[in-house]
Design brief:
By secondary structure, the protein is an all-alpha fold. The chain has 16 helices and 2 strands. It has 2 domains: 3-160, no CATH class; 227-461, MetI-like (MetI-like fold). Helices cover 74% and strands 1% of the residues. Helix 1 runs antiparallel to helix 2 and helix 7 runs parallel beside helix 10.
Amino acid sequence: MSPSIVLLLIVALAVLAFQIGKARAIAVVGGHREVRNLHSLPGHYGLLTAMWCAIPALAVFVAWVAFQDNVLTRLVTAQLAEGQQPIPAAQMSLMLNDLRNVVAGSLPASSVTEPVRLAAAEFVRLKRIAGFSLAGVALGVGILALLWVRARIRPDLRARNEYERLVEWALFACSAVAVLTTVGIVLSIVFEAGRFFSIVPFTEFFFGTNWSPQMAIRADQVGSSGAFGAVPLFVGTLLISMVAMVVAVPLGLFSAIYLAEYAAPKVRRVVKPLLEVLAGVPTVVYGFFAVTTVGPMLRTLGESLGLSVAGESALAAGLVMGIMIIPFVSSLADDMITAVPQSLRDGAYALGATRSETIRQVVLRAALPGIVGGILLAVSRAIGETMIVVMAAGLAANMTFNPLEAVTTVTVQIVTLLVGDQEFDSPKTLAAFALGLMLFLVTLLLNVIALYVVRKYREQYE
């Protein structure tokens, strides 16, 4: 039985529990005419019963699904090693990989060895048994909880209060999951980055100008120990982000001013959604646009002007990235401009200011904190972009400030380092976590600054 079917059964049981709890509450007071003797509405008793039925069953479901594959893999691994010589770890890893592929259907059973084929059949059998066991345990726990709550239902039971308390705890659990997930992500990055810095010195990473993380096979090869100077990556990230912001900030800000102050309501209703459609276009589409249109156009234009423009350049990536983040700047700026009280505009008009003077001297100054916050958020979005840079700027870690040359960024190198088979005891792989930690700290700092600017100055105009 698949987990999705078990989940549907739990939902159906919760719906049944609601009806049972509601009917029980009506029955304990002698019918519908006496429901006024209940502390809470009958629906609250039903909701309380449904929640007490669903929560334990869902807890069992989540825990079972989280650990089921690991337990089954251990059982099958023990079967593979039974009656044989000790299997090396590398060979066991390959056998388990073949087993998973056979179970998933991506590898025919005839292409693997007999032990792996038998182990795959055993895995499927155990997984089928585990599915029925999950259904029995989860539904059994839910039914026991249902019967327990049903026995507690009486006229003076504060069902509404208990139900709201359960909802509060459920919301707290959801918030805790989000917070703990964030903490787990940060700790995993920090731990792996710490391993990297135990091998590579801080000074080489932050001040080195040569990035060549590929580890040589022979000791006599050039760069056999790798070179992890990340300055070219930081320069490339900064260069592309600057080009993107040069495009996005003026276009986004001027678009927001036009839509908020000059455009007729009919024009605004049409243009604003069309502008925000840019935010929904997949980044890979922007990458295709940069490769097939913007890059060749810049190269042709550069040749006509006598300039040497690389086929993959920071300028092409920055221009397309700037177009992509225009909605981030324009939407936030438009919201801030429209939030400026009309009384400030009327006061400026009363003093004889024109519309353009009112916008420059009053409206933009009043909305400036929000506009700055939106720009900083757009910068963090530009720094974290990957696909456009991969396709339009290349992978070369060049130490240059010339936007006509090929460069690479931090995010692109993270993707490059984590593609293919990984060895998490190698500086080459661990370097991705060090770069991820730097990217996380920079974007976090930008977001904190944006929130600080907005909160500090927003109250002056409310």
